[in-house]
Amino acid sequence: MIDFLKKIINIIKNLFEKRDNNDLIITEKIESKNEFKSNMKILIDNGHGVNTLGKRSPYSASGAMPAIPFFEYKWNREIAEKVVEKLIELGYDAELIVNEIEDIPLEIRAIRVNNMCDILGKDNVILISIHSNACGDGSKWEKGAGWEAYTSIGNTKSDKLAEVFYKKAKEFFSDRKIRYDWSDGDCDKEASFYIIKHTKCPAILTENFFYDNIDDVQFILSDEGREKIIKLHVDSIIEYLNS
Fold first, then answer.
1. What domains are defined for the chain?
2. How far apart are CA 198 and CA 104, in angstroms?
3. Pairing of strands 93-96, 147-151
4. pLDDT tens, residue by residue, 23-76
5. What contacts 24+ positions apart, CB below 8 Å, involve 23-27?
6. 125, 127, 138, 236 - which has most CB atoms within 10 Å?
7. Residue 198, CA atoms < 13 Å, CB-side half-sphere
8. d(CA 184, CA 4)
9. How far is 212 from 117, CA to CA, in rounded Å?
């Protein structure tokens, strides 16, 4: 029986090896599900990359003051890595879908998620894509502010995941703006973002405040802000798994 299980694990590992640039799956070791507190695979997406144009605070060529350097790809990766690290410490099966510093195309990100769904079953996988928001062209500081989360359009299993995140966001950010959209009867916003529209499992995209708002970006760059955002994601995921 042990040898049979080892063969199955090896087969799954082989499916996750690098085949070509358009089908790069996750190469981390797949551990036995018996080692985790939940059978759910938690996939964390860190948006954008070092080569993504824009996606930074308006501090350099624009001459906008105060000068607060913020690069979304870098911040996304720092938060995503800490979320995965904390979930693993707590006994959950969590993994980044992008280990590269470059901006991996959305199509390939979706392939990585969907291959995991095909192997484990789409009901045994969830995806959270971590971002920070902006409302301007990067030339000046703007007034848009707050935290929000997106699901794909329509009533889906992702709505329940988003509801838990909104509940926790209200607790963690009681003194800050939370952006809702009740037009379809639930609190989350909806959009056709590729990473949540073209993946098979429940998936949400979090927009963790605005990096072109002075107050928001100072908050998310602070130790307090980082810790609250990390804990929001970790606690929301665990509550969802236990619901």
1. 28-241 (3.40.630.40)
2. 15
3. unpaired
4. 444 434 444 455 899 999 999 999 999 999 989 898 755 566 677 889 999 999
5. 23/108, 23/111, 23/115, 24/104, 24/108, 24/112, 25/111, 25/112, 25/115, 25/116, 26/95, 26/97, 26/112, 26/116
6. 127
7. 11
8. 49
9. 35
Can you tell me the distance from the alpha carbon of 220 to that of 208, in angstroms, rounded to the nearest whole number? Answer: 8
User: Which token pair is 226?
Assistant: 């980082």
SS3 125: strand
Query: Hey, what are 19's tokens?
Result: 């085949």
Q: How far apart are CA 149 and CA 202, in angstroms?
A: 13
Pairing of strands 203-210, 147-151: antiparallel
Cα–Cα separations (whole angstroms), residue 25 to 28, 44, 46, 89, 167: 9, 14, 15, 23, 33
Amino acid at 142: E
The pLDDT of residue 139 is 83
